[in-house]
Structures are given as C-alpha cells and as structure tokens.
Write a structure and sequence with these properties.
Distance between the termini: 96 Å
Strand order of the largest sheet: 2-1-3-6
Number of helices: 14
Oligomer: single chain
Shape: globular
Helix content: 25-40%
Structural class: alpha/beta
Largest sheet: 4 strands, mixed
Length: about 375
Amino acid sequence: MISSPSPWIPTLTLLLLSLPIIFFFTSHILPPPPPPILSLPDELDDLTLFRRAAAVDSHPTHKPISRLGSTNRKPKIAFLFLTNTPLHFAPLWERFFNPNNSVQIKNLYNVYVHSDPTVKPYVKPPGGVFSQDRFIPAKQTFRGTATLIAAARRLIAAAIIDDPDNMFFTLVSQHCIPLYSFQFVYNSLFEINDHQVAELKGLKYKSFIEIIDQDVNLWDRYTARGNNVMTPEVKFENFRVGSQFFTLTRRHGLMVVKERRLWKKFRLPCLRPQSCYPEEHYFPTFLSNVDPDGCAGYTLTRVNWTDSVNGHPHTYYPSELSPELIFNLRRSSFALPYMFARKFSPDCLKPLMEMADEVIFRD
C-alpha cells in the first residue's frame, strides 16, 4: 500500500522557495542596523594619545613661536586628510605642496592621513607628501557617527605631538581640492602685518570653523539620540551645527583633544540615524561655547548643497569643470575667500591637473 504524501511537503517547499524573496524585501524595506559605537579599547587608545598631546604642549621645553622675530622658525599648517578611499587627488595636492620642488615651502607644512584600515584603499601609499610615515594609526569610521569625530581628534593630536611648529590644523577629505596655491593659503592665515598688530594688542589667531545656531533641522538633530539625552552637558540653546571641515588654531586643537565632558554625549548612538551627523555638531558646539570670540564663524571649504542627495552635497563631474567654476567657488561673503572645495568625483583629476598651473595655482 502506497502512503499518500504528507500535506506539509507542499507548504515546506513553498516556504523554502519564498526565502530568497523574503530576504530580498527585508533588506530593502527594513533600515540597516546602526553601526557600532567606539569600542572600549579604541577609546582607551585615544585617551592615551590625547594625553600625550596635552603633555607635549605643556612641557617646559616647549615654547610658543613668536611670529615677530625674524630669527625664529616659521609656523606651519598641518593638513589633516580624513579618508576611507584612495586619495584620488594626490597628484593635485602634490603640486599644491611642491610647486617646482620649492624647499622653502616644504618647511611650512606637514601632512597627516587617517585612512580607515578596514577599507585598505592602497596596496601602498601614493608617495611624495603622502608617504607611509604620514599615515597615522587609524580606526574604522562610519558616516554619520562619532567615529568621524574621533578620527579628526586623532589627526589633531598626532599633529600636535609631531611638530610644535604646527599652528593651524586644516581638516580635508579625499573629495576636497585646493582653490589657491599653498603660498596664498599660508599668507592668508599668517598675514604678517595684520598679526603683528594683533599680537601687540594681545589678541590671538582665530579658528575658521562654521558655527550656525539657526537651522530648520536643529531640533530634530538635537533629539536624534532621544529626548533629554544631551542634557545637562549640552543644552539645546547651546547646540550648534557647521561644516565638518575646518581650520583650527593650535590653541583650539589642544582644547579639542583635552575635552571629555561633551564627548560623553556626542559619542552615544542615535535612535534616528537619518538625523544624526555628530561630526557636524561636536566641534562647532564645543568651540562656540568655550571661545566664541576665538572663532571666525565660517569655514574655508566651499560646499554646494543646492541639490543634496541623502545628506551628500553636490558632486562635481568633469563636464562641469571650467576656470569660471574655480573662480566662482572661491567667492565668499566673509573676510577671506574659500580656499578649498568639495565634492569632486575621482575622474575630475585629469581636467583639474590641466588647469592647475594656469588657473588654480595662479592667484
């Protein structure tokens, strides 16, 4: 006698056949899991690094540079590259830093790179100013998380430790390009006549960091971790937003690496990741509260938000590049022009190199 097939067999077969469809729609409908917060070992590593930076600058043998004396070493700009992809515009930056292999300019800057080690963008670094020794010990980063704050702080701390002559710290990304020559940027930040007067009056350099206190999304971003989570350390009336990219003075760089109180709040994960961009809030919130007069209130990096997509600014492609675009990107309503710009696609390198000497670096 032949037994009849189990009534469960068609059901199980249908379920097995449906699994791929279920997995497909689940991955496209449900939001992705939030990225992990910084691990305790990473936090401890950072704390050790930040303490080293604070100790270096407080050491009795460290003496601040006076820019009034012609016999003293000249101050430098530390360029901090934060990336999780190859440095597509390395040849353009190489020309920015080394026009005609100028020995004089080589003594006016330092380069530091924080490259996400999990991405492994290079078999080997591109060389030149981006040699292996310019890459600092790095940790994994995630967009829209406190890992980007931590990475920027690592870069600042590494630059403080590496060279006491680093007086400005300029944060850029792999998508940034220079809009002027290095000499123009340097002269603008260290304008000797203006700063002679400023120093004689006991004033200090200012940091170029965007600080905005009026924004339609500010409350939504403030409560992205939950209601009342940010208090009492960060009250809403003190919450600020600004560009992720900035130029800080050494004094402010030291304040940033020493800071612990606000970090305890900004490191927390967000309940609404789509509203969470801590890297755009931590630095302007902190510095606007501790030293508002020491901040210019604007950034030197131009970004086009006119057709933003998913929180990303406009990306320029080769068909959009022209001398007129470079001139327009430089224009600013502030005291200084924009000196850097983003975001550019990797295939913009060739046309940018073609106009580098005659347009970009001809001030």
